[in-house]
Amino acid sequence: MSENSIPAPGRIEPLRIAIAGLGTVGAGVIRLLNTNHDLIAARAGRPIEVVAVCARDRTQQRSVDITPFAWEDDMSALASRPDIDVMVELVGGSDGPALAASRAALSSGKGLVTANKAMIAHHGLALAELAEAGGVPLKFEAAVAGGIPVVKGLREGTSANALTKVYGILNGTCNYILSEMEETGADFAETLAEAQKLGYAEADPTFDIEGIDAAHKLSILAAIGFGARVDFGSVRTTGIVQVRAADIAQADALGFVIRLIAQADVEGEGADARLLQRVRPCLVAKDHPLAPVYGPTNAVVAEGNFSGRLLFQGAGAGDGPTASAVVADLIDIARTHGKSGEVGAPFSMPAAQLAALGPAEPGHRMERTYIRFTVNDRPGVLAEITAAMRDADVSIESLIQQGRANEGTEVLVAMVTHEGPERCVRQALDLLEGSDSLTGEPLVMPILPN
Ligand code: NDP
Ligand code: HSE
User: Fold this and answer.
1) pTM for this one?
2) Which of 334, 377, 411, 416 has its CA 20 to 30 A from that of 360?
3) Residue 117 falls in the annotated catalytic set
């Protein structure tokens, strides 16, 4: 922090911030700081004052008044202005200008608050080291699960526990799409367009629907929950692009809903400890706490060895909830003048002490699985599929074939397996690979245990 952020005796100095990015979240932060100005000043012990802002296009009409603030065209220049204490990065992108400006802020003694999960997932450790070296705060509550204080919840609230697993719904866009398709029968493309209009989706929405955004967030949560280095590269990721309305109907008939679930756990101990992180669409029983999570809502379950199961739930995207998390970080910094014990410990412990856990292989894990094939409707196809299951030692619990939907010859075959090792399902699918009975890639969705 710059020296003049330390208040002179008897004089209350504001926390002076610069905001880079005036889109959904940036405008939301300005609106929140204006609306709750007095309440925030009272809770922070001093006002939080926006000094300067920056976005791509100065001439663009904004939903908030930015005329009281200085304008910078360049984010890195904004980050190192001598008249600010903290830069708030709300631009996005793992690299490029957001990363350069974040480094510039930390290197010039400013605190950094960001909602940028992509940047923290890829460069969180390096930024943490920079923050530690400069003794300045780095905070990213809004980067995971929007308005839910889950970073704080895991870092502080569960800090006395050994966590066994952390899992949940971490992408509002996918949850909005899946639950809208379930409620209204609307198609995928139409629902995605609506999520974009509502400001939930990333600038590149493939990050949402392919599970990458959830993987970014999971790698951050796992790092906090398990005291490990952020390891985004090891997250096994499958998105929701392949989920069809027919799968949602099939799951419903079986007593499940479909949700994109991000899951992390550690197996083994000491030097043998391995971290398994994955994001995939799962069948969730209708009485599971994650089943009634609709729309852009996110929910995180953390299981601690003393706390038991904890559920954090709330809005995972959108201007208001995300701004709420950003401003909570600013209030923390304002209260402590950037000199709290949290400085330099952006994960659960100082960067150098974080464990480098290798990735776990899941083949031996036991699960029940929903598998959906699209096949040519001709004699012998079912026999071919069931033979592959038999040869791979996969036991089928139930099997449904749906009639032809239209003129074509494609039909849908869905099955649920008994519990068995994951590698057996993989082996069965390998046996079927290249078969001209299949008209597309099979969809595999595990059934989330209750
Ligand atoms: P938007 O696309 O709505 O806004 C991005 C802003 O960044 C725009 O104001 C844009 O300028 C500005 N910008 C882009 N490139 C540059 C650049 N090179 N220099 C300066 N400014 C630039 O994004 P969001 O507000 O939705 O998201 C911002 C961040 O928050 C992202 O990291 C996102 O992942 C994260 N986030 C978003 C949530 C949400 O619900 N939307 C929830 C949680 C996190 P201009 O307006 O002039 O085009
Ligand atoms: N695109 C993200 C989502 C925004 O849909 O969850 C919140 O991080």
Assistant:
1) 0.94
2) 416
3) no
